[in-house]
Amino acid sequence: MTRKRVAILISGRGSNMSALIEAAKAPDYPAEIVGVFSNKLDAPGLDFAKANGVPTVAVSHRDFASREAFDAVIEATLAEWRVDYVCLAGFMRIFSTGFAQKWTGRMLNIHPSLLPKYKGLRPHQQALDDGATVHGCTVHWVIPELDDGPTILQAEVPILPGDTAETLAARTLLAEHRIYPEALRLLASGAISAP
Ligand code: GRF
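^ inputs. structure came back:
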């Protein structure tokens, strides 16, 4: 089995990144995590990646005059790692159109809502404000539009009486950690392909 080479892009905690790294430790998992890139030099997730032997690169977007210039650094890093697929995991940067187009069909994201509902920031609060009774998360293909692109997998979680954005986020995160490795497994094994 030739394992697909996957990079993960993060900006923070990296719990979804950790779930992917853990899943890829299984000998029969069809992808290997070949690197983690962060646009935040102090992203906590970098420590987990390093501790698990995954190469890391952290470059601040603030050091670049344009989105295109920063995306060129990401591109060069991915080329060096000879990446087949990119998983965004809490990566809080919008890409230049050129970069997004280049990676369309090879880049996944996870968003903590049942897309197309509650795109953008604070999706859990959006769901609560909306009076929703069901929430969830979505792994989707990345296209140039934010939090959009064909769905690969979704999982539902209940919204319970007394939920706050924090309690709902914690419940949703458990589902995220389940479906992101599963979605990457489907893709890397060839069970699904780009739309
Ligand atoms: C997750 O809820 C993810 O769905 C969203 O940002 C959050 C990142 O959390 N895109 P973590 O860094 O994976 O812990």
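The mean pLDDT is 96. The beta strands are 4-10, 31-38, 56-58, 85-88, 107-111, 134-141, 151-158.
thumbs up if we can close this ticket
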